[in-house]
Amino acid sequence: MDTVKTVIQSCHTDQRSIPYIGKSILSKRGLSRLYRGITSNIASSVPISAIYNFSYESVKGALLPLFAKEHHSNAFWGIIRKGGFSSLYNGCGAVLCRNVPHSIIKLLCGGLAGSTAVLYTIPFDLKRPFCSV
Question: Residue 29 sits in which domain range?
């Protein structure tokens, strides 16, 4: 949507619809142009992930010595000895029954929120009416 919005803001010709502008961008510039600028998003995600992983590993490293040494890996080997390697995946169905609907609902809510935000904020930063690419 941001690419389409930017094209709308910078164009100087007659009025066109948003779908027309989207198709024009795809036909004249190609699919890759829709993702121009994604590197800034990736550049911001990498440090955030690094901070998260560093924090997680630091806390884990600080808490692990508080537990007795035999508890560090006993659960893993105990599960394998008792039920075999496949027993590590016994709860997989329950986890999927919880995570799949949760992820779908989260995706739908995020999409709805993003679409609503775009719908209400795009008109405020348009300088000109819709026009062709």
Answer: 2-125
